[in-house]
Amino acid sequence: MSREMNDHQNRTDKHYADLEKESKETLADLQTEMDNKLARVEGRLTLKISELATTTAENLTRSAQDLASLEVRSASQMSELKNKLSNIQDTLTSHVTNTSQSHESLPSDVPQSLKIGTSFNKRCIKISNDSVDYQTAKANCLSEKAHLVIIKSRDVDGPVLRGVMTATKITLVSHSTFLFWVGADDMSTKGSFVWNDGSPLLTSSSLWYTGEPNNIGGNEDCVQMYINSDVLALNDNNCGKTFRYICEYEP
């Protein structure tokens, strides 16, 4: 019995010894495999870091080159802007000089209130602030040794009138039309409009607004002007209505 127990103990000890050896070998294999994997990961990380460093350096180099190029372009643009500003200043100086000379060339009896338009082809034009009937507008202009403005050409008169309006802080836009009395009526002969210099304003003239003159109510004997940034046209209206007006001095 004692011998059998000894044999059993020996087999048990051998079994545990074998298990211990196998476990150690397995652990060693796992450690080796883990070390190899860690080495591969470390290698890949090192490669990625190297690639990232190279890319970053290249990007920084390109950024520095772009900044240098931008500085060159900015300097060029700044120089161009300075030249343009200098040209604008020269133009303004010339304009002021010409305007001053234009004032000096006007007769001494031109009312100061009419001199606002002298920089526009030496024409002296005043735009009223008040609204009055046609006869009052005509009389007010005469009292300043002037007359209600005469419109003969959109191409000639349009830029002058718009320029004077801009100078007097009147903002012209396409959707807002201003109305002014001008110097024409048919009071002497019904249907025959005449400018205040005696020249005819034919009813067939292209200066009339579409469908005008139409003599609505049978008493539209005086002429007013429509004007905005796009349109300059004439319309017949009741002389008793009140509108602003435009005076012009003829030297």
UniProtKB/TrEMBL annotation:
Superkingdom, taxonomy of origin: Eukaryota
InterPro entries linked: C-type_lectin-like, C-type_lectin-like/link_sf, C-type_lectin/snaclec_domain, C-type_lectin_CS, CTDL_fold
Secretion signal, residue range per the UniProt entry: none
UniProt entry keywords in alphabetical sequence: Disulfide bond
Segments crossing the lipid bilayer: none
Pfam families, A to Z: Lectin_C (PF00059)
Domain C-type lectin: 120-248
Keyword Disulfide bond found: yes
Name this protein carries in UniProt: C-type lectin domain-containing protein
Source organism of the structure: Pomacea canaliculata
